[in-house]
Design goal:
The protein is mostly beta strands. Helix content is about 0%, strand content about 30%. It contains no helices and seven strands. Strands 4-5-6-7 form a four-stranded antiparallel beta sheet, with no helix packed on it. The protein has a three-stranded antiparallel beta sheet with strand order 1-2-3, with no helix packed on it.
């Protein structure tokens, strides 16, 4: 998990909108494919509501991964601390409709 110097992965079920953290168990991403150890950390991120989602890792340097998403309104949102499950969205403004990806 966070701070253990191992690779972790964030995934989304596009049908349910659930977000998951897959924790690495080794130095080279070992364990990421083990579906039995994934941790649900968010919900409501369906492709209809949140067509674009990406995670740059820890964008605000608080030690916890963050998320960027464009919602159906065309607004870009910053979601800090996704592993905590509280998902305090911050609206960063509109004009993001029509993009095909965030990276």
């Amino acid at each position: 998990m966070w701070g253990d110097e191992r690779v972790d992965l964030i995934s989304r079920n596009t049908e349910t909108g659930d977000l998951y953290i897959h924790t690495g168990t080794g130095d080279n991403g070992d364990g990421l494919a083990d579906q039995s150890t994934k941790i649900k950390t968010g919900y409501g991120f369906t492709t209809g509501r949140a067509p674009l989602v990406t995670s740059p890792g820890d964008a605000d340097h608080d030690g916890v991964p963050d998320l960027w998403t464009v919602l159906e309104t065309g607004h870009l949102w910053f979601v800090p601390r996704i592993s905590k499950g509280d998902l305090p969205l911050r609206d960063l403004g509109g004009g993001w409709s029509g993009y095909q990806a965030l990276s």
